Amino acid sequence: MYAKCGQLDKSRKIFDAIKEKDAISWNVMISGYGMHGDAESAIEIFQQMKQSNVRPNELTFLAVLSACTHAGLVREGKCFFDRMRNYALSPNLKHYSCMVDLLGRSGNLHEAEDLVLSMPIAPDGGIWGSLLSACKIHNNAEFGIRVAKHAIEADPENEGYYVMIADLYLSLGRWEEAENVRAKMKEMGVRTRAGWSTV
Description:
Shape: elongated
Largest sheet: none
Number of helices: 11
Distance between the termini: 31 Å
């Protein structure tokens, strides 16, 4: 509760007072630090967890990867992702999603795409969407168009992907292709939701 509210000092005091910490208490503390942008403390808690002989689980790695993603710690994120194998843990879709987000935000678009294409599980629209957002952030329209096609294939009902690919075509001056995307949306019955405001 304290960690979610951002009162990490109080959360840490209670955590430190627990005599026998289980994986859940360690995970909550790692996640709390990561959620509030203190990746260094999240990593420090992970190291302490290792020394305490409590075995990290999938959620532990998800929490520490998420902390690395929010802080842009690419090298550390890769290291933790690789370390999962040491505990006989297989990354799931959420772990891959964190890594794609981390690599994409840092501009390693090709590496992020390679990771998605090498996944032993089928990528969902969310993973492609995360990479697509990174393409937009880093102004890589050509790459973004390729990624958007994968995103639409994985989640054809998501109108955001069509809008994004049309915008990418427009940014390159490819008006006809942008219009074709809009026409395809109409043909498939995919509609953009009307924006609204409470102001």
